[in-house]
Structure prediction request, 550 residues.
Amino acid sequence: MAGTPNRGRDYRSYEYLSAVTGKTPIKRPYESDSEVQYPEGSTADKKVGKEALFNRYNTFFYSGAYGSAGAQATNYFVNDKGWDPMLVERNPTASKIINWSRNGANEGKNCIEYAWEDFLWCKNYGKVPNNFMVTLRRFGSPINDNIINPEMNNTPDIGRLVTYMDGESNKLDELMKFKVKLNWKEFKSEIQTVQASSGYGGNGGGGNLLGKILGATDTAGSNQARKGTNNDGFDPYSNQTNKTLGPINVIDKMMVRDRGLIFEQSIKLVFEYEMRSIDGVDGKIAFLDLLMNVLAVTYNRGDFWGGAIRHVGGARTSNPIAGQDGMAMLASGDFGGFLGKLADGFSSRLNELTGGAGLSLEGLGNAMKSVGGNIMSRGAGAAMDKMGRPQAQATMALLTGDDTGEWHITIGNPARPMLAMGNMILEETEIQFFGPLSVDDFPTKMKVSCSLKPARPRDRDDIQMMFAPNNQERLYSTAMDYIKKTYYGQVGPNLGGQGDQTEKQKPGSGLSEQEKERMKKESETFSNYVDTRFPNHAQGPVSNTGKYTT
Prediction:
């Protein structure tokens, strides 16, 4: 149950723990296993996390910086258990990172790749530790946060650029900054002016043509029109603009939730390179090669386009007597063929008008009926054009929420990153060259500045995945979370989804009856409290969601 905490309030109190268990309340949650709570009917592999330290309504699940299958135990405490100081996670030298990307990270089957040329021409390589690295990658198709898992992404990047958080050009506090907001709008009460309708047609139906017909048949209304206008539309307060109408000491506005969640993030990365001759390679040649890689990551090639003509709507159908084929013959100079088609057309029209009776009295009567009917049809069509016809509506394509950004940013040691952000778009790139000149009379320094932002706003679950992209589950999870499908959550058939979730499994199944009863009472008290203070939350369940939508 979404509104039910894993444990009661007393279970986490200093008094209870010290008196009953003798254990400290801060360490106790991370020593207690808590099963990740799926909806009823779930057949997903059971995963075990820990009780969340800061929020007792959630299970905290963390399987490491780059995740695992979910069964691997994670060390939640500060000690050296399981750590090797020579591993790339603890000692990220360029050599170890390159070797890890080719062999250690899922045996080199994922998207992560590094080579010596990524490091050697960087201005701050060897000056700033590699756990302050920032890597910008571009892929040939939209990419999400998780580039470590080959089952999600296994296509190598088109190119990559490496820089460092040096505290000047790239600052940690700027690169890891984002803003989240709920969308609100203001409603303000006001005096409403209601205009009485007058005349005929309009919103009452009929349109301009029908209004004229109804007006012509209304004797009383016509007499009124002859005598003079009525008072429709007269506002007796229109000349009292210096007065406040209605009560004064009132509260006349309020804020209500509007559609949408707002996530704001803007990242500017600065890549600085210095010309160096390595292994005897000419410095200018290497710099030009590097520049081409920068352009491959940040820009596109294109062809000139002189515009196009787009035809919309439809023209009236032309039906000449000779037919379309006859007109084509006339256009091509085939006058004999055109005259033949013209004769066939006259004969066909005569048969249509006379009903096949020819120029007999019956045929002439049929022709008069046909001509009269055509005139009525055209008149009715013109009237419908004036009164309005049902209009074909052009609709925009619905958004799917799929990734559209081709860029990915990794902040920190690639083997243990601080942030991993995919689905980024590159807004602009500035390239600058600086002196002194080399022996080839070419600038020896290059600076590349890239401005990026997310292709779409992130919700709470998406933000979690930036910090643990391959965690396999949300860092915070409750049963309610799995009603909405985002990265890894699947919705079972009993909740309207297609996920394979048919095996029954109740959250909190390991609790005693006494604990369940206490949790039930707490939940009811909490629900009553929320209903009283926030009545909008008590409007009943929303389709496919829990009662509370936060």
